[in-house]
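Notebook, bench 3.
Goal today: get a predicted structure for LysM peptidoglycan-binding domain-containing protein from Christiangramia crocea so we can plan the truncation constructs. The sequence was checked against the plasmid map this morning, with no discrepancies at the termini. Length recorded as 651 residues. Pasting the sequence as submitted so the record is complete.
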Amino acid sequence: MKYLFVICFLFQIYTSAAGAQAYKYHTVKKGETVFSISQSYNIEEEDIYKFNPDAKEGIAVNEKLVIPVNASRDSKSSARNTQFKEHKVKKKETLYSLSKQYNVSIEDIKRYNKHLYSEELRTGETIKVPETTASQNIVVRNTPNPEPRVAKPKQITKTREHIVLPKETKYGIARKYGMTVKELEALNPRVEVLQPGMMIRVGTDVLEDEPVIITDERFRFYEVKPKETLFSLSQRFGVSQDSLRRLNPALNAGLKFGMVLKVPEREGAADMDDESYTGMENANTKIDLSSSINNFKTKEIALMLPFHLQKIDEDSIETYQNSIMNERVVRISLDFYSGVLMAVDKAKSMGVSTNLKVYDTKQNASEVANIININNFNNVDAVIGPLVQTTTEAAASRLENRNIPVINPLSNREMRGYENLFQSRPSDEILKNAMLDYISRNSSGKNIIIVADGRSFQIKNELSNMLPTARFVNPTDNFVEEAKLAEMMTEGENWVILESENINLVSSVTSALNRLARNHEITLLTTNKNNTYENDIISNNHLGKLKFHYPSIDKEYDSMATEQFMEQYEERFNTSPNQYALRGYDLTLDVILRLGSAENLYESFEKYPGYTEYYESKFHYLPNSGGGYTNDAIYILKLNEDLTISEANDF
């Protein structure tokens, strides 16, 4: 793989005395599996997984795998020392249920039952289940979580009569009287459709005018209108969602139509209520920085990543290479670094040279402080990295007084508000709110059905406030019967919003919807595509048939658009780039082009307020009220029936 090249690039000042393990590359052919490949080379699957850890997620045609050609099956003693229990497969049992029953991984079961790599589990067959000391001593106790209490909406005791005028809607009337639509409907339970001249009950608080109040030069008040989301408001006013929450603590309980929010007053915004507000236009405008390069001064970039180079003092490069296969953070760093190198070369071809200095943080905050103390950072234009929160904050805190930007590449955790800290990976909250915004804009005319478990009560409340006509299906013991879903289906478009991380609930809902999709038009959506959807139990074919929609930080790269990049990368590293290599390329090229089109990174955001986009990622930074910047640019993706992934455009 590419690791050998990257390691040698990093360690060119070191020498290695040890003899090298022999390797060869194998190009995956159609129909091949990890098991069949291991059989053809007379090695264990574990040998392939050791040098190709991504293969555990599956292999694709034309993918290149590193094969240790002199690995010996006879050297594997662990299999001989493992004790087994024979299990006869019962009806409805799955690899997942067996892994839970015996407290072993699905991969361990497959390892000792080779046919399961390419065949399904069959009722009545007998398989070997490995028994380990650890698994015998582990006792799992499941304590049921009580259902969270959901605050009931306030009851309106004082009412008055209101005669419905032509073109009036429930939204307009509710806003006029300071109510929510649900409160209005509760007062008028028999009213299905409003008709001019109809008399209905309303609250006594009358808001005759638009509640927009100018308070001072910095802030103003704004009333939330129907179908607005936190994401759309952040775009509208050019501030981060985090800033809006700090200014309005009530948002922690969710955004609600009719709320009056305190928002920053942007200089030069003559009419903030105008739908053509330029802040929103700028945020949704894609910009190409390659056509705006005017600063050709060599860029000084410091790259901080955890490589753990200290191991080279006692080990050879070969031994180091073998050891990093078991250290995920180092593999990620090397993948990311390979993308950085490609981006530096690309920028150079566009006329922007970079002096790249690479530092090993050893995943230690003290080491970061030491690096900054003993090296000259005065002329550094930007720091890319470190990876994790503690080391990133250590770098930002020591470089804040010099105003040197520190760009964290991968973490989505909330960090301390240093003015020079840029979080390039949008948080889960940003993903959720962007999906809510998409649903809000496109849900008109759809039959909305919401399935949410007890743990998802907060998003359930937000969806309820945003979609007052939606209907809810409450799971029983993390299961939803097909009949419950069927009785809510209509002849038109049915949108099912599924909010859960429970494998049993997601499995039961997707399976039931797949059957119902034979006679109904169904689209499945979620605000949180968690690891549950990657489980083998969840069928991608089902998700594809249901046109599964979800928010994502990165998109599927276009093989045609990236053809030249892929060829250059494979020629240089003898393998295809993974997500971390592409992330390293996209982020680094964005930073260099921003520096090449402005005096510094901060000025580039003022000159070019739109978003930039590369192979897999896009970037649009907004300031946080507590300090620093966050990237809020994400994708709404759709899984197609042929299992390709595309961007979901507004309907």
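The longest helix spans residues 328-349. The chain has a mean pLDDT of 79.
Flagging this for group meeting.
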